[in-house]
What does this fold into?
Amino acid sequence: EEASTATTGGPRRRRVLVFPIPYQGHINPMFQVAGLLQDRGFAVTVFHTHFNAPDPSRHPAYDFVPVPDGLPAGSPGTVAATVEHIFAINGSCEAPFRERLAALLEAPGGRDEVACLVADAHLLTLMDVARQQGVPTLALRTGSAACFRNFMATPMLCDKGYLPVSAESQLDAPVRELPPYRVRDLMAVTSSRHEHDLVCKLLARAVEAVSTSAGFILNTFDALEADDLAATRRDLAGVPVFEVGPLHKISPASSSSLLPQDRSCLDWLDAQAPASVLYISFGSLASMSGEDLAEAAWGVANSRQPFLWALRPGLARGAALPDGFGAETEGRGLVVGWAPQEEVLAHGAVGGFWTHGGWNSALEGACGGVPMLCRPCFGDQMGNARYVEHVWRAGIALDGGVLERGAVERAVRRLMRSEEGEEMRGRARELGSRAAEAIAEGGSSRHSVDKLVNHIMSLWK
Ligand code: UDP
It folds into this structure.
């Protein structure tokens, strides 16, 4: 099947281009997709912004093309600022990406090699650029299938009056068209009209990016989201959907970590009793107030449960753990800046996960067979927490309002030391087994990867 090139006479190389949106939770799955395509014989070129640029020396097999973005360093701090940041990346990368892609295609053998661009679904403008140059696109969404249904349903939910929310009392209303979501779990839920409009535009652009693409890649697996995947296929009529997750089990992403991972915590975990440790992490973007951080800390301390806390610098905008917390938890807890999370969650000593409910974290927790305490902040995190608690029944949602140390302490005890928590752990382990089956020989995700590879080959002219 490999044609010869006129210039070298050797086999024609096939290449995929990838362009992640530069946030940790989006970069990891994109590198994982790149990894699995490379395993199947594709050369990989990574287009990337200067903002949160990957380190090429950690991926010697890939080619890297930096695209100037003109953006200031530092992550945006609010939902509105994050959405604006995504629009700004699309806008400022458009012209330089067009130039760099044209240069790549015009280089000797360039156009011959390139099969497609896999881009984050939030990069519609850049996908348009690629298609204008004759490069087919595939969209990667790094959230769940359920979350993408929420994206697609948003205009209808606005028409029906669920959104924008005008009163606090609406938040607990069930969304009949999209069970098990309540209004408070929806993507575009916010009290600010400005923010509502921005988020609706973001979601509409992502839906357009997916529905105009030659394929849609999701980091999920059939046994986890069979109904939502079937509905997504139905609603997207015509765009092939490839559910290839859990990606971190197929192709590890530690090499795409933007922050150095403190691996010493794995040695510390080796010395802890099985399923005894609560692992705490709120991901790469979520933030909390200094007061919430203090309540969280005292709740954990008062539960007397051993813990490993990945406390990202900047989580609480400069606020530190409260005085006395270190002394109080001496010998029982370890705090690091950034952990090798996939390995931590797969470690036998970890018995629970307090998470913000980012999709990667929820998947990594489920695959590690670890029940979760979810404290969602924004975006898809509320919806993910709803699934963890209500559908997977593998965790507890701590949503709404300020944190309170007594509630935290009770939730930690429930998760780690109650019969109910043990049942959640059993269901989480069951999900972990389903995930392992999905990626094993003959499994649904393995099959999807085969289909994805064949599909990309069919796009390669
Ligand atoms: N992560 C990590 N070390 C940490 C915390 C997080 O490597 O200490 C990784 C985690 O494994 C996951 C990603 O960062 O793959 C976070 O993605 P997620 O979707 O959970 O949340 P986001 O950061 O996008 O809010």
Q: What stands out?
A: The mean pLDDT is 94.
